[in-house]
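Fig. S4 source data, part A: sequence.
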Amino acid sequence: MTKVFKFIAISEGISYLVLFFNMLVIKPNHFELYKSLLFPIGMAHGLLFISYVIMAFRIKNNQNWDLKDLFVVQVASLLPFATFYVEKKYVKNA
């Protein structure tokens, strides 16, 4: 289950960055391309975000996280690049 969480954490971080790239780089220059990419990228990111949050709760006991650690892991899902940090620092035994 830990390997799955690591995969989801990395994938969620990448999808977050791709979503930002679509909004900040593609939208100003190619609006039609932006509109066609927005739904699939947004849907993938949304599913990965929900999976990340659920999996964090599921592996909390396995990783011996206290409430503070769980809070940090959950807040990391809201910040760019933070899921990569969580994957390295908080996830053990993968």
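Fig. S4 source data, part B ends here. The chain has one domain: 2-85.
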